[in-house]
């Protein structure tokens, strides 16, 4: 009897074990996305020389908190544009090229699982971004970055990450519009395929070869698709997930626009779209809850997302200690005195007429490019360099991006048409003295200590607001687009000829078709731009600006006064009103 009793108990135990094994199991994963960090590694702005919000140091505090909750089930991803922006990135891109790249060292320390290529990472040039990728102890993805010689991807197209019995595949892609903005000598031997085309190619491979439980799109592209240069689909992230089946989550970036919403996927399912914008102020924060049956198959899946602020968190102490030496090196670099300015310069006056700030860039472009005409825009919306000693840090305010200088062959008519498009992006068509001079978005109230304050913003990005030097011209804002600009003469008084070809200095962004002022505006086919380049610098314009100021010792910034708005009676009053709306202060005289 006892023997039968023990056999029964044993059978019961075996049945219970089988039941337990057959029960469903729940796995919770956490995806954390950074994107468009732009060199904001430390809680310090090396350009303004003051404390700053955001930073990878604060992201690390958040990551530690999440790892305490989720353990090894945290997946940490960066979505590109990390190598450009603050001097902390610039220093290890171009100055200290012997030490391990600081960006790679930081991401390795934080335990990133994958990165992705951004257009501004490619802007640093192959020597820089290839070195950075080699220093990273994780894959930097790029399914649509293809080597022209072999047809293979230059970066791994995707990465497989296994967590607690769940297989996650991350597919990385960058906007293919790189050739519109960047010179080919920065990415020799590469081409950039359409994102949708690349996704259609790689998704069947992922499904058949990897049989994933979750597919994440890591796209350095925004959500409002546009065609650039007549052929490149920029910001096509939403189009990809709506047209290519298989995605659960799309972690996007590039357009610096916060987003967290769901869209209908290609198979009618929902796809979560998350974008934490720029500067490491926020992170994309996604929780995946998966139910697995006894055979380890996913039988249910829940995806929730939000944007989590990190700008108010304390910087991670271990991070700061680990990278204190590099911090000191960058501080020493940006604190180097290079010369002196006799007066304060600011981008603010540049929107209302000729300015000492932009005309300093014009003067340098004309000189270095041995050009007759220069086109340039204020690259930072609101930058200022004080009179007195000038430091390396000021150069990042004076010139924001690592653009090279081109001298191009353009006809006089093409110059005028490019300016017509620029001023159409920049100025309103005034029909009375009470109208705006500038093309502004509707002013919005903002609560300040003293009450509600109205602030306005440009309808279009100011880095496309090209003015010209080397010619004398007027801009009549009462006229429609195409009829605003009247070029009177060359700066030396000689006649200006619309049929004549001139040597025109532009930055490489503009010369490659960026902003479409030369393509859509001037009417030059995208594929012809390359043929128009007569000369290119081998270093970025910021380098030459630094050398120019060092050589001069003392620089007296002055406006060239080569153009003006008409009718002056209207535009003078409108400028004062719009200046206050943009900047909240009275216009200086």
Structure description:
The chain has 19 helices and 33 strands. By secondary structure, the chain is an alpha/beta fold. The chain folds into 2 domains: 309 residues, Metallo-dependent phosphatases (Purple Acid Phosphatase, chain A, domain 2, 4-Layer Sandwich), CATH 3.60.21.10; 248 residues, Alpha-Beta Complex (5'-nucleotidase,  domain 2), CATH 3.90.780. Strand 12 and strand 13 form a beta hairpin. The longest helix has 21 residues. It is globular and about 85 Å long. It starts with a helix and ends in a 6-residue tail after the last helix. About 4% of the residues have low confidence.
Helix content: 25-40%
Number of domains: 2
CATH architecture of the largest domain: 4-Layer Sandwich
* Mass-distribution shape: globular
Distance between the first and last residues' Cα:
108 Å
Q: Looking at CATH, which topology of the largest domain would you report? A: Purple Acid Phosphatase, chain A, domain 2
Top-tier CATH class of the largest domain: Alpha Beta
Fourth-tier CATH superfamily name of the largest domain: Metallo-dependent phosphatases
SS summary, helix count: 19
Topology, element by element:
Blueprint: H1 2-22, E1 25-34, E2 44-45, E3 50-51, H2 56-70, E4 74-78, H3 87-95, H4 102-110, E5 115-116, H5 119-122, H6 126-135, E6 140-141, E7 145-147, E8 158-163, E9 166-174, H7 178-181, E10 190-192, H8 195-210, E11 214-220, E12 226-228, E13 232-234, H9 237-243, E14 249-252, E15 259-264, E16 270-275, E17 282-292, E18 298-309, H10 317-322, H11 324-334, E19 337-341, E20 345-346, H12 356-368, E21 373-376, E22 384-385, E23 388-391, H13 392-398, E24 405-411, H14 412-426, E25 440-448, E26 451-458, E27 467-469, E28 471-476, E29 485-490, E30 501-507, H15 508-511, H16 517-521, H17 529-532, E31 533-536, H18 541-552, E32 554-555, E33 563-566, H19 568-583
Parallel strand pairs: 1-4, 5-6, 9-11, 11-14, 14-16, 19-32, 21-30, 28-33
Antiparallel strand pairs: 1-17, 2-3, 7-10, 8-9, 12-13, 15-16, 17-18, 19-23, 20-22, 21-27, 24-30, 24-31, 25-26, 28-29
